């Protein structure tokens, strides 16, 4: 099982700070949530998609003792596009099961494991959460993903993680969807999907999001960040 983590983004709204390395606990960084969720699910290898300007920082960070048991390796994202460019970089290293999560989010670390243990796995799976801010996320409407679009006030199911198998990769290679929203919709059209609950999802989009999380949650020095749900007002940011 392969864990895929896209870390090539330049973080323009963060002054080019690598937000996946935000501290969220003692010897704990934001990217650890995705890594630990994947490890709990049974991943043995972890593909960190990085960039020429970030590779040195990532390598240095993952030299820490706590990561020694992780099979982390690095791939440079050649195509500077959205996360679809990162997903494509993982294809040569794909396994029968591939799990994908964003490195700058908080969600229930048991989400992948629950999905993999609860039922027979279908080719394509979406980890979802509830939001009333569809303009910030890709939300499911009539069985398709609509990305960051103003919609009528309501509660929507947004995606935040994925699981796919090699059949999905083959379909993507046969007809390159061009971006990640089209990739998800193409997979849904070809294979359908099974949704699994992320329980909550906190996206650190800006410094203000991080500061608000520090103020409204147990803060950066809790013993196990990401297990307990953050404050209700922050859970869907």
Give the overall shape, derived from the CA principal axes.
Answer: globular
How many runs of DSSP E, i.e. beta strands? 13
Quickly give the structural class.
Answer: alpha/beta
H/E series, N to C? EEEHEHEHEEHEEEEHHEEH
Roughly what is the average pLDDT, rounded to an integer?
89
Indicate the percent of residues in helices. 25-40%
The number of helical elements comes to 7
| Percent of residues in beta strands | 25-35%
What's the main sheet like?
Answer: 7 strands, mixed
Q: pLDDT below 50 for ≥5 consecutive residues: which ranges?
A: 220-237
The strand line-up of the biggest sheet is 5-4-1-6-11-8-12
The N- to C-terminal Cα distance equals 30 Å
Q: Cα-atom Rg, whole angstroms? A: 17 Å
What does this entry look like structurally?
The chain contains seven helices and 13 strands. It has helices spanning 31-41, 55-61, 83-89, 111-118, 166-174, 180-191, 207-216, and strands at 2-6, 23-25, 28-29, 45-50, 71-76, 98-101, 105-107, 124-131, 138-141, 144-147, 156-164, 194-197, 201-203.
Summarize the structure.
The protein is of the alpha/beta class and 237 residues long.
Layout of secondary structure:
Blueprint: E1 2-6, E2 23-25, E3 28-29, H1 31-41, E4 45-50, H2 55-61, E5 71-76, H3 83-89, E6 98-101, E7 105-107, H4 111-118, E8 124-131, E9 138-141, E10 144-147, E11 156-164, H5 166-174, H6 180-191, E12 194-197, E13 201-203, H7 207-216
Parallel strand pairs: 1-4, 1-6, 4-5, 8-12
Antiparallel strand pairs: 2-3, 6-11, 7-13, 8-11, 9-10
